[in-house]
Design goal:
This protein is mostly helical and 325 residues long. It is built from 10 helices and no strands. It folds into 2 domains: 166 residues, Ferritin, core subunit, four-helix bundle (Ferritin), CATH 1.20.1260; 158 residues, Ferritin.
Length: 325
C-alpha cells in the first residue's frame, strides 16, 4: 500500500511550497530590477555582447524558473498524497544592488537546504521513497544555487566608466499614484501565476484523476486533466506578462510589489478552476483597460503599448475559460 502521510509531512511540504514561491518571485523581481540598475555604458570588453548586469540578470531568471518548477513538483506530490497545497509565499527579500541580490539569495538557499534536510530525514524514516527522491533532486538544485550565489557574493558592482545614462522618459509622468496602479497589475499577475500553478498540480489529486465515463478511459484524461493542460500554456503567458510589466516599472525607476492581490483561489474541482480563473481574467482585463486609459492620458506610449498587447492575450484566456461554461 502507499504510505500514510502525516500532518508533520504536509507541514514540511507546504513550508517547501511557500519557500519556493518566495524565491521564484524574489529572483524574478531581481531579474526585472536589473532594468533599474543597468548602466547604459560601454561593455566591459569590446568582444563581449553583454555586461555583468546582463549576465547576473540571466542567472537570476534561470534560477527563478527552476524554483517555480520546484514549487509545482512539491504541490503535485502534496495532491498525490491527498493533501492541500498552500498558495501563501514566504516574504521575498529583494535588495538594491547585485551584491544585495547575491547575499539575499545565499541566505534563502541556506534556509532551503536546512528545511530540505529535515524533509529528507522524515521521508526516509517513513519509507516515503517517492517524496524522498523528489527532494534529493531539489536539494541538489538548491545546493547548486547556493554555490552560484556564493561565487558571486563579492562581485564588483561599481559602475564601469562610460557615457552617462541618457534620460528618455519624462519623470513627471510617473507619480506615486501611477506606480500604485501599475503595481496592481504586478500583484494580479503574481496571483494568477500562483493560482494557475496550484490548480494545474491539483489535477493530480486522486478525486480528480478518477475516470468514470468511457470517453475518459479512452482518452486517458479527465476534465480536470484537460483544464490542467490549458492552464499550463496560460501560466507561461502570465509569466511573460509579469516580466514585461516588472521590467517597465523598474526601467522608469519604480519599485515592484511582491504580494499577490487578489489572493489566489484554487477551488476543489475542474468547474471551480474554470469559474475562478474566468473571474481572475475578468479582473485583469478591467484593470488593464484602466491602465491603458491612464497611460493615454499621461502620454506614456510605451506602457500603453505593453498593456494593449497583454490585454489581447488576457481576453483570449477569458474566452478560453468562458467556452467551458
Amino acid at each position: 500500500m502507499a504510505i500514510e502521510p502525516t500532518e508533520e509531512l504536509f507541514d514540511l511540504l507546504n513550508r517547501g511550497v511557500a519557500r519556493e514561491l518566495q524565491v521564484a518571485v524574489q529572483y524574478m523581481l531581481q531579474h526585472f530590477k536589473m532594468e533599474k540598475i543597468l548602466r547604459r555604458v560601454k561593455l566591459e570588453n569590446i568582444i563581449l555582447d553583454k555586461t555583468t548586469y546582463d549576465a547576473i540578470g540571466e542567472l537570476l531568471r534561470k534560477i527563478a524558473i527552476e524554483e517555480m518548477k520546484h514549487a509545482a513538483h512539491i504541490m503535485e506530490r502534496i495532491y498525490y498524497l491527498n493533501g492541500e497545497a498552500t498558495t501563501k509565499s514566504a516574504k521575498p527579500m529583494i535588495g538594491e544592488t547585485m551584491k544585495d541580490f547575491m547575499a539575499n539569495g545565499l541566505h534563502a538557499e541556506e534556509e532551503a537546504l536546512d528545511l530540505y534536510r529535515k524533509t529528507l530525514q522524515l521521508t526516509e524514516s517513513m519509507g516515503d521513497y517517492t517524496t524522498n527522491e523528489l527532494f534529493r533532486d531539489i536539494y541538489e538544485d538548491e545546493e547548486k544555487h547556493y554555490f552560484a550565489f556564493q561565487e558571486h557574493l563579492n562581485i564588483d558592482d561599481a559602475e564601469p566608466e562610460g557615457p552617462p545614462h541618457e534620460e528618455t522618459e519624462n519623470p513627471k509622468i510617473f507619480t506615486p499614484e501611477y506606480f500604485e496602479l501599475l503595481n496592481k497589475a504586478v500583484a494580479a499577475e503574481i496571483s494568477a501565476i500562483v493560482q494557475y500553478t496550484n490548480q494545474h498540480e491539483k489535477a493530480a489529486k486522486i478525486a480528480l484523476r478518477e475516470m468514470v465515463v468511457p470517453l475518459e478511459t479512452i482518452k486517458d484524461k479527465t476534465k480536470a486533466g484537460e483544464v490542467s493542460e490549458i492552464l499550463k500554456k496560460i501560466f507561461m503567458q502570465e509569466m511573460n506578462h509579469l516580466e514585461k510589466i516588472g521590467e517597465r516599472i523598474y526601467k522608469v525607476k519604480g519599485e515592484c510589489v511582491y504580494n499577490p492581490d487578489p489572493l489566489p483561489e484554487v477551488g476543489d474541482n475542474a468547474d471551480d478552476f474554470l469559474r475562478l480563473d474566468h473571474k481572475a481574467e475578468d479582473y485583469a482585463i478591467v484593470l488593464y483597460r484602466q491602465i491603458i486609459a491612464e497611460a493615454i492620458t499621461r502620454g506614456d506610449t510605451k506602457t500603453r503599448k505593453i498593456f494593449e498587447d497583454i490585454v489581447v492575450e488576457e481576453e483570449e484566456h477569458y474566452w478560453t475559460f468562458d467556452d467551458f461554461f
